[in-house]
Amino acid sequence: MSVLVVSGTSTDVGKTVVTAALAAALSAAGRSVAVCKPAQTGVGPDEPGDMAEVTRLSGVSTTVELARFPEPLAPDTAARRSGIPLVTRAEVLSAVRELDARHDVTLVEGAGGLLVRLGAGGFTVRDLAVDLDAPVVVVAAPGLGTLNHCALTAEALASARVKCSGFVVGSWPRHPDLAARCNLDDLPVVTGSSLVGRVPEGVAGPDASGFAAAAAGWFDPDWLETLAS
User: Fold this and answer.
1) Is 50 labelled as part of a ligand binding site?
2) Is residue 227 part of a domain?
3) Amino acid 228: pLDDT
4) Is beta strand 195-200 parallel, antiparallel or unpaired with respect to 63-65?
5) Is the Cα torsion angle 227, 158, 195, 118 positive or negative in sign?
6) pLDDT tens sequence across 180-200
7) Which residues are catalytic?
8) Is 110 marked as binding a ligand?
9) Following CA atoms 212, 213, 217, 219 in sequence, which dihedral angle do they give, to the nearest 10 degrees?
10) Which residues pair with 195 in a beta bridge?
11) What angle do CA 166, 43, 58 make, to 5 degrees?
């Protein structure tokens, strides 16, 4: 199984852009890529969601969104408030395994942080990783406070015996402050996992072809090669 779960230390840390960058980089390496979003929140029925953004930026067209809820809340809360049925763990696993059977790499983008409840029964991104025996790459913010968030996420993964594939800074500032610069050295120390990428802030603009062409350069080449092998 070639599944990689993309989670985050919290919301708004750049998971979708990192997912798009990984999809673009793996595609450029000649791999067929699919992307699954179990639950999309904060988007209306006819509005483009995260999977549309992944396709726009990466060119990867095989994407699956299993549930959508209009309010920008945790998926299980948004589902209850909207009256729309919650997505089930079995539905997500079936969709991911079907994609995995037909593609070299399947990326699964979570919602919010690792332990956000995605659907029926309160299952989480971590639960999916356990079921799929898949590693998790964690997207983090660059600045002050991120070391604690990253360490907590690393502990949550280790407690469930889920492999942490590494950490990626989801939006690396053009002018990083002292905390951001120090975090590059400190993050691997406090988490026990490597920093495997930095996606520059502001890259998800209208120049999608430029994004796709540059994406591989935002990740550690040896790490990226292991995903593509």
Assistant:
1) yes
2) no
3) 81
4) unpaired
5) positive
6) 999 999 999 999 999 999 999
7) 37
8) yes
9) 20
10) 167
11) 45
Owner of token pair 């550690």: 220
User: Is 13 labeled as ligand-binding?
Assistant: yes
Q: Is residue 225 part of a domain?
A: no
Is 170 assigned a ligand-binding role in the annotation? yes
The three-point CA angle 198-24-136 to 5° equals 60
- 8 Å CB contact between 72 and 40: no
Domain count, the chain: 1
Q: Tokens 């450029």 appear where?
A: 28
CB 132 within 8 A of CB 93: yes
pTM: 0.96
Ligand-binding annotation for 17, yes or no, is yes
Residue 87 structural domain: 2-144+153-220
pLDDT in tens, 127-152: 999 999 999 999 999 999 999 999 99
CATH number of 59's domain: 3.40.50.300
Given a contact cutoff of 8 angstroms between Cβ atoms, the answer to whether 170 and 140 are in contact is: yes
Is residue 124 annotated as involved in ligand binding?
A: no
Query: Could you please report the per-residue DSSP string of 6-46?
Result: EEESSSSSSHHHHHHHHHHHHHHTT--EEEEES-EES--TT
CA separation for the pair 147, 145 (Å, rounded): 6
Tell whether residue 15 is among the known ligand binding residues: yes
The stretches of the chain forming alpha helices (DSSP H) are: 15-28, 50-58, 75-82, 89-102, 125-132, 146-159, 178-191, 208-214, 221-228
For residue 6, being part of any structural domain is answered with: yes
Query: In sequence order, which residues have a C-beta less than 8 Å from that of residue 129 and are 6 or more positions away?
Result: 5, 135, 136, 157, 160, 162
How far from chain centre, in Å, is Cα 141?
13
Q: Is residue 229 part of a domain?
A: no
